[in-house]
Amino acid sequence: LILNLNLTDKVANLSVAGLVEGSLQPDSPEYIKSLSDLSFTIIDDGLRSLTPSDPSRITIVDSSKSNQQQYVYASEKIWETFLKTFGEEIKDIENKLELTNDGGFENEEYVSYFKSETAEFQNMADQLTKLEVPQNWEKDHVNFYRIVSQMAIFNRAFADAKNDSIKAAMSLNLLSQIAEGFPRLIGDYANKIKSEGLIGNDLFNLN
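Now predict its structure.
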């Protein structure tokens, strides 16, 4: 599975192969090109391994007002949990990363924290797969699921940094994309709640 790809091992294996074959020898005329190809391969594989798939199951219902209102009530509870958990992680992440100054990525408190965060976000993703989703909310729902799932993937990479430090580093660099993406999605939810004449909590209040 691409999600289980170990990028650090792949870099090592490709580097050894290139050295044996000769193209990654510094005096090789192919050295610059081979190094560039290696970098592009790792970045591409890394991005794919950190990108969540769409939910394997999703229950679509008709877009009646009552179904939409039920969905809003259920999804906004998950939104509230997500924002609280995400905000606390962003606030604490620098301190948690500093734990690696004592014992590296095997520091027990560091590993335990990110394993716990992985479970939190995975639980939210699982909850999203159980909701009945009105047809006109499917796109927004899947986008929210992707963000939550990606946070689970990132935290799993942080927890496993002792085995794959490259994937963990890529996850940290991509974390800002989550912070930039979900406010826009909140706006999409809020606009749809308003346009459909539904009732949302303060998170989705445009007034």
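The two ends are 45 Å apart (CA to CA).
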